[in-house]
What we know:
mainly alpha; 4 helices
Amino acid sequence: MSTPPPPGPGPGPDHPDASPPPGWENPAVRADRRLVELLQELRVLQTGVQIVFAFLLGVAFTPRFSELSDAQQDIYVTVLLLTVVAAAVLATPVALHRGLYHHPGKARIVDVSARIAQYGLLLLASALTGAVLLVLDVVLGPAPAVAITAVIALIFAVLWFALPWAVRRATARERP
Length: 176
């Protein structure tokens, strides 16, 4: 059973945007909220995965596909497989939620799902980076493709992994 927020201004007709003060959630309510947030984030990512996958499927059926070098075809296959695995991994928290609906260990489900989502992000970043490499290799040639793709990989690493880690670390230092 959840603990109600303390009395005072809160959501309602007088304060529609007000939210309960931090810290009022009990562990079950927090786990529910965290899972809903995670599933919403994964919906956004799944759209991106689907777009990349659709692009990759279409590429194989174009007349120019047979003109790709062996190395470019290897990149294509690798990116296609990374995309499929990313889709599977990013959908796993949804499957966990469905398979363990009303399970008492929701906090553990959320923790496992969050870790799985991190692996999915890594796979998606790899797939997107590989797709960029393939397209740029065809358009610009291998040397510029590798250089630009390295920058893209660095951008993913900084924005999706280093930045959240740095913010988490700074926040942990600020806590008493």
